[in-house]
Each structure stands twice: as structure tokens, then as C-alpha cells.
Amino acid sequence: MHASLDWWVGDAVAIACLTPFCLVLVVPVVRRFTGLPQNAADVESASAGKKVHEARGLRRAIESVCFGAAIMGSLWLALGPRSASNQNRFYVFFLPVVWIAVRRGLGGAATGILILNIGIVLSLQFSGGDPSRFALVAIADAGSFAYRTDTGHADQRARSHRKTVIARRRAHAAIA
Fold first, then answer.
1. CB contact at 8 A, 119 and 126
2. Are 70 and 99 in contact (CB under 8 A)?
3. CB-based contacts of 144-148 (< 8 A; 24+ apart in sequence)
4. Which helix (H) or strand (E) holds 87?
5. Which of 28, 104, 106, 115 places its Cα 20 to 30 Å from the Cα of 3?
């Protein structure tokens, strides 16, 4: 019974970690490589790195290093040497994930969650921690990913609405 529970937890965690990353970043590349027609989601993920406010060049590299440091810091705070006395620090995992999602969008959030979950697995593997703790964290991170998926198009919708309002004002001004 215990072995089947461990097996189920391992599979659930793998699905929660890898599926968002593969759907957002790997599938569009495979579709382009195989010559399959791209849908709107593939085109959007391909243009995800071309946002107006996104850092480029050296700033992007520095920002990526800061993301890595934030993930490492959250791993140390929640699973570090002093975490045995307090196991209620899993909320710190959301901080770097939300920061990455805001700065890099859906692809960045998927990548950040994958890196965070790999860090959690390695940390628990070396410390001999309970894998069921990891399952809860992975599911929570998947929830964060789902939230980001829901709000991912907000900027695009706001821009479209703004253009519609401007066009209506111009049409109204031309009539008057």
C-alpha cells in the first residue's frame, strides 16, 4: 500500500511539473519543426519574448540570475537546515513564481515552476525528506500556474479595449 502511494505521488508530481512546461514551451517548437499548422496559442508563445516592458540583453541575464537566486533562497528558507522545526513555510515558493510570471509571462512561469520543483526534489532527495511534502508543494505551484494562465491575456485585452475606445472617440469626433 505504501509503495503504491509513493508511486502515485511521484507520477502526480511529474505530471504537475512537466505538463505546463511542455504545453507552453515544447509543443509549439515541435509543431513548427514537424510542419503542423500553428494555432493562436503557439503563435502567442512564440511572441512571448517580444513584450514592450520585458528586459533584453544584459538586463535580462541579470534578471534571470536574480530569479535563480530567489528560487534558491526560497528553497533554503522552506527546506533548509532549520526547516525541520517549522514545516509551514511553503508559501515562500509562491514569491519567486509570481515574480517570474509577472516579468516573463506564461513561459517564464512554467519554467520557474519546473526549476523550483526540480530544486525541491533534489533538496528532499539529499535531506531524506518526506515526498508527500513535495506533492503538496507541486500541486500548489500548479495552482499558481493555473492562475497565471487565467490572467495571462489581461494586458492584451486591455490594449484591445483601449484601441476600441480611441477608435470610437475618433468616430464620434468626426461625426460631431
1. no
2. yes
3. 144/94, 144/97, 144/98, 144/101, 144/109, 144/113, 145/20, 145/97, 145/109, 145/110, 145/113, 148/101, 148/106, 148/109
4. none
5. 115
Q: 136: which residues sit within 8 A by CB, 6+ positions away?
A: 90
Structure confidence at residue 83 (pLDDT): 65
For residue 114 the three cell numbers come to 519546473
Residue keyed to cell 511529474: 14
Q: Which of 168, 62, 44, 12 is nearest to 70 (CA)?
A: 62
Q: How far apart are CA 173 and CA 167, in angstroms?
A: 10
Q: Which residues of 133-168 are buried (b: 16+ CB within 10 A; e: fewer)?
A: bbbebbebbbebbeebbeebeeeeeeeeeeeeeeee
pTM above 0.90, yes or no: no
pLDDT in tens, 113-138: 888 888 887 887 787 766 665 655 66
Other C-beta atoms lying within 10 Å of the C-beta of residue 31: 15
Contacts (Cβ under 8 Å, ≥6 apart) of 46: 28, 32, 38
User: Phi and psi for 152 in degrees, rounded to 5?
Assistant: -65, -25
Instruction: Give the whole-angstrom CA distance, residue 78 versus residue 93.
Output: 8
